[in-house]
Fold:
Amino acid sequence: MVRRLLAVVTAVIAAVGVLPGVAHAQQDVVGGTRAAQGEFPFMVRLSMGCGGALYSPRLVLTAAHCVGGTGTNTGITATLGVVDLQSSSRIQVRSNYVYRAPGYNGNGKDWALIRLASPVSGLATLPIATTTAYNTGTFTVAGWGAAREGGAQQRYLLKATVPYVPDSTCDNSYPDLIPNDEICAGYAAGGTDTCQGDSGGPMFRRDASNAWIQVGIVSWGNGCARPNYPGVYTQVSTFAAAIASAAASLGG
Ligand code: ARG
Structure:
């Protein structure tokens, strides 16, 4: 009797665990949990299915692999100011120009700036790391991408924390790693990671003044959250000067 009851309880727990929208949605693969409204005001969702971070009121920093090339582009819609992409209080603005990292060819240099047709107000921007000082420790990642490898895009912003992985370790998993252009993060055991659709979004941490600072841009990985395959991020500090001068050329 006790054994049978146990079996029933176990079956119920198992069933609830796979029901979408119940316990599962709160904490899915990628080890994410829901971000609170306003927690990461700089987070941007881009209509091509990428993330981004508000660099200035008119500029969104994202990944080069999320955009075509440099030039006039009015085809991207940015959604800002909400964790719920369907919220009636969301801000939506079109792009008017894309600047892709010069020399981008699919290996490294995975950054781009998108200029918005009009500046957004009332949203904090995310400063970028200009030195290597913060390329260590524990990072926060966030995005509306898949909550599991091969999974659907998310309506609500998910967040997770991932530890820094040294290039010397990451290189064992990814011989193609470009150590100066890329920075890795994730647990050896897997389970927590960014995934498809998170690309272009920021990886960030606290700086010496306890303010958020961007150290990475979601770039690539082997699957998502697999053991011994950390996420690979654009190493923002390497490109900070190039990003700043590109931003200035775009009008700030
Ligand atoms: N390239 C993916 C995208 O376009 C991001 C993949 C990140 N993968 C990872 N395992 N961290 O959305």
